[in-house]
Amino acid sequence: MTKIYVNLYTTTNTAPSPWTNNAYGSGSVGVGVLTADLLDDTSSSTGIGLEVTNAFTGAAGSTGIATADNVWPKEVFDVAWYTDGTDGTLRLTGLTNGDSYTVELAGHTSNSSRDTNFTVGATTTLYDSAGTGVPNAPISFSGTVSGTTLDLTAELVSVFGYTNGFTVELTGASGPTLTGPASTTEGSATVATGTGLDTVTTFSLIHGSNSVVQTIDSATATTLNYVARSGVSLCTPSTIVSGLPLEATISAAGVTPYQIQQEAE
C-alpha cells in the first residue's frame, strides 16, 4: 500500500510532516508538470507523477481558523489554491492499471458560501466550506485505476473554488488465487503440492520428448490449466484439469524434468 500527502499553499509551507514531502506553492498553479516522482508518507520514491492539466487562478491563505478538529492539520486547511473561472485539475500519472485508490480532498476557505465540487473518476461530491469555523472533514473517493492516470478536478460553485490539498492511498491489485488438487503427478513422481503461487502465468516442464504446461487464462482467473502437451501416457491426469504451478525439478523414479519457461505478472 502507498499513501501520498500533497499540500497546496501560498508562499510559505508551514504544514507538518508528511505534508512537507509534496508541497507546491502559488508559483505552480499554471499548467505543467509539478513532479515525476511524488514521495510517500515515509519519504520514499513512488514513481508517481503530478501535473496541472487545467490551471488554477492562484493561491490564498489565512482562512482564520483556530483549529482543525479532524484528520488534517490546521496548516493544510489554512491555505489553498483557487479557481475563479474554469475548473482546476490535478492529474496523477504513472499509476498502475487495476490498483485500488482512495482519494481525500478538501476545499476549506474563510467564506462559508464558497463551496467546491470535487470530481475524481466519474464521481462528483460537494465540499461544504465552514468559513472561520472548524473545517469540515475531507471528502473521500474510492475506485479502481483505469489506465495509468487519475484526474482530481475542483469546480467552483459560487465565485471561487478551493483546494487545500489531497491524500491518495493506492493498493495493488491482488494476483489470482490459484486452487486445485493437493498434488499433480507425472508418471509416478509428484509434480507439485501445496497451495500454489499467485503470480505464475505460464510454467512449462520438459522431460525428454514429453512436456507438461500450465497456463493461467487471465489476470483475474482463479485456476491454472494443466496441459500434457505430449507423452500423455506419462502424465496423471492425462486431461486438462485445474492444478497447481509445477515445481522446477523432480527427483523420483528417475524422472527429472527441466523448467523451460516461467512468466509472471
User: Which segments are poorly predicted (pLDDT under 50) over 5 or more consecutive residues?
Assistant: 175-201, 216-224, 228-265
Sheet with most strands: strand arrangement: 3-4-7-12-9-10
Beta-strand share of residues: 35-45%
The end-to-end span amounts to 18 Å
Integer tally of domains = 2
Structural class: mainly beta
Shape descriptor = globular
Instruction: Give, in order, the helices and strands.
Output: EEEEEHEEEEEEEEEEEEEEEEE
CATH superfamily of the largest domain: Galactose-binding lectin
Examine the coordinates and then state which fold CATH places here, giving the name of the CATH topology of the largest domain: Jelly Rolls
Explain the overall architecture.
- 32% of the residues are buried.
- The protein is mostly beta strands.
- Mean pLDDT is 74; it is low at 175-201, 216-224 and 228-265.
- It starts with a strand and ends with a strand.
- The protein has one helix spanning 74-77, and strands spanning 2-8, 23-24, 32-35, 49-54, 58-61, 79-83, 88-93, 100-106, 116-120, 123-127, 139-144, 150-156, 161-163, 165-171, 183-186, 189-193, 200-207, 210-216, 224-230, 235-236, 241-243, 258-264.
- Helix content is 2%, strand content 44%.
Based on the model shown, name its key terms:
265 residues; mainly beta; Jelly Rolls; 2 domains; six-stranded antiparallel sheet; globular
Q: How are the elements arranged and paired?
A:
Layout: E1 2-8, E2 23-24, E3 32-35, E4 49-54, E5 58-61, H1 74-77, E6 79-83, E7 88-93, E8 100-106, E9 116-120, E10 123-127, E11 139-144, E12 150-156, E13 161-163, E14 165-171, E15 183-186, E16 189-193, E17 200-207, E18 210-216, E19 224-230, E20 235-236, E21 241-243, E22 258-264
Parallel strand pairs: 1-2
Antiparallel strand pairs: 1-14, 3-4, 4-7, 5-6, 6-13, 7-12, 8-11, 8-14, 9-10, 9-12, 15-16, 15-20, 17-18, 17-22, 18-19, 19-21
